[in-house]
């Protein structure tokens, strides 16, 4: 039931941005066979179908967007089974840690409005009952949280949160409810000294955003991101599940079989991974953020992508993975949510976005979708 956590998220991050082959999860598991695309179908659909078959995924949607506003979309596989429904390009998916990019955007907006300062300590925004109880909260700045360099422990370490989910699958978790899971643990390291992925960083940023705005996280994101970027099919998770949401599948019982896990709330309202979106809407997000300046001004965007910390084979900026390829830089994130996986890449030199959304996690060893598409998109590197 994990979204992401600790070393696992870092490994996935490097897979996505720098094209390292993903580890084999279970070579013997398979998803249902999908009908092959019709002869003469779109090459993007053919590629996606072959990838989904190889990965053992139930279904997926792939989008490529350009700075002009043009986009190409492809879908394959199943959006649900029993009854079987074919995947369509308008389907919603949980995007997991792609949500972190959006939390970072709102944080930078508040900083641009002088309502916060990135040098503020996160402890300033915590309820009184948690003052002094969260490691590094009195020394870690908002900038440290944005860069995953706070040293604050990850609430997903261990299995306690997932035990809570198992007891109450439709709880409707809120950011502030997770503070007891973050409190009373030792820090990983001194703030700003190194990188370590921690979902707690973005939970705490969510607590800060809600405190400063005096509103629930979904209302804030609607006002500040979804509406300005015209992301009409994007929202935080909720019950009942929307009709457009592709059903999510995972090996919930660790028995080698995929089960429908859509109705487990592992963070519907959380700032580290609770957003549902479509490939089209995420391409709109890329354009609003990186092209049109709808969400951030050029100075804030430059800082978000250059004030980075070393994170293995690449760097981490403000809620963004910053990588390099033979075709130039790539910015973005990946995400995992129980029953879902996602990739988001922006190539600033080509002004091109690539979005991949799946209603499962790869069961067999495959490279990232983005790494496999670069030659087809951009030609051979110079």
Structural Rg: 20 Å
The spatial strand order of the largest sheet comes to 3-2-1-14-13-12-11-10-9
SSE ordering: HHEEEEHHHHHHEEEEHHEEEEEEH
Shape, per Cα inertia axes = globular
The count of β-strands is 14
Sheet bearing the most strands, described? 9 strands, antiparallel
Strand proportion: 15-25%
Low-confidence stretches: 1-30
Class inferred from helices and paired strands: alpha+beta
Q: Please give the count of helices.
A: 11
Helix amount? 25-40%
For the residues shown, what is the average pLDDT? Answer: 90
Q: Span from first to last CA?
A: 42 Å
Detailed description of the structure:
This protein has 382 residues and is of the alpha+beta class. It contains 11 helices and 14 strands. The protein has helices spanning 6-18, 43-55, 98-112, 142-146, 160-167, 179-182, 199-213, 217-226, 279-290, 298-306, 369-378, and strands at 59-66, 71-80, 85-86, 93-94, 235-236, 249-250, 259-260, 275-277, 309-310, 315-316, 321-325, 328-337, 340-347, 352-358. A 9-stranded antiparallel sheet has the order 3-2-1-14-13-12-11-10-9. Helix 3 packs across helix 7 (199-213) and helix 3 (98-112) crosses helix 8. The chain is globular and about 60 Å long. The model is unreliable at 1-30 (pLDDT under 50).
Could you give the topology of this structure?
Layout lengths: L5 H13 L24 H13 L3 E8 L4 E10 L4 E2 L6 E2 L3 H15 L29 H5 L13 H8 L11 H4 L16 H15 L3 H10 L8 E2 L12 E2 L8 E2 L14 E3 L1 H12 L7 H9 L2 E2 L4 E2 L4 E5 L2 E10 L2 E8 L4 E7 L10 H10 L4
Antiparallel strand pairs: 1-2, 1-14, 2-3, 4-8, 5-8, 6-7, 9-10, 10-11, 11-12, 12-13, 13-14
Helix pairs in contact: 3-7, 3-8
């Amino acid at each position: 039931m994990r979204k992401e956590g600790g070393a696992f998220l870092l490994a996935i991050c490097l897979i996505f941005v720098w094209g390292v082959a993903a580890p084999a999860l279970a070579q013997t598991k398979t998803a249902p066979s999908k009908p092959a695309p019709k002869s003469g179908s779109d090459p993007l659909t053919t590629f996606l179908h072959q990838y989904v078959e190889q990965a053992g995924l139930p279904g997926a949607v792939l989008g490529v967007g350009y700075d002009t506003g043009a986009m190409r979309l492809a879908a394959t596989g199943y959006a649900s089974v029993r009854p079987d429904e074919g995947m369509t390009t308008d389907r919603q998916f949980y995007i997991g840690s792609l949500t972190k990019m959006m939390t970072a955007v709102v944080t930078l907006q508040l900083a641009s409005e002088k309502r916060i300062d990135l040098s503020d300590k996160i402890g300033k925004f915590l309820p009184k009952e948690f003052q002094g109880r969260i490691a590094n909260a009195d020394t870690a700045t908002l900038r440290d949280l944005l860069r995953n360099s706070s040293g604050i422990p990850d609430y997903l370490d261990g299995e306690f949160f997932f035990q809570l989910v198992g007891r109450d699958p439709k709880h409707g978790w809120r950011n502030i409810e997770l503070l007891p899971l973050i409190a009373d643990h030792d820090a990983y390291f001194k703030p700003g000294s190194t990188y370590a992925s921690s979902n707690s960083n973005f939970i705490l940023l969510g607590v800060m955003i809600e405190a400063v705005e005096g509103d629930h996280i979904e209302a804030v994101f609607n006002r500040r991101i979804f509406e300005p970027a015209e992301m009409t099919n994007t929202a935080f998770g909720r019950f009942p599940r929307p009709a457009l949401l592709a059903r999510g599948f995972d090996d919930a019982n660790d028995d080698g079989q995929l089960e429908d896990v859509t109705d487990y709330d592992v963070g519907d309202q959380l700032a580290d991974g609770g957003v549902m979106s479509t490939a089209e809407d995420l391409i709109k997000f890329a354009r609003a953020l990186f092209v049109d300046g709808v969400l951030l001004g050029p100075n804030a965007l430059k800082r978000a992508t250059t004030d980075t910390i070393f994170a293995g084979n690449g760097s981490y900026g403000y809620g963004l993975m910053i990588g390099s390829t033979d075709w130039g830089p790539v910015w973005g994130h990946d995400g995992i949510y129980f029953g879902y996986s996602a990739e988001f890449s922006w190539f600033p030199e080509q002004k091109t976005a690539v979005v991949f959304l799946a209603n499962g996690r790869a069961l067999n060893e495959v490279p990232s979708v983005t790494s496999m598409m670069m030659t087809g998109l951009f030609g051979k590197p110079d």
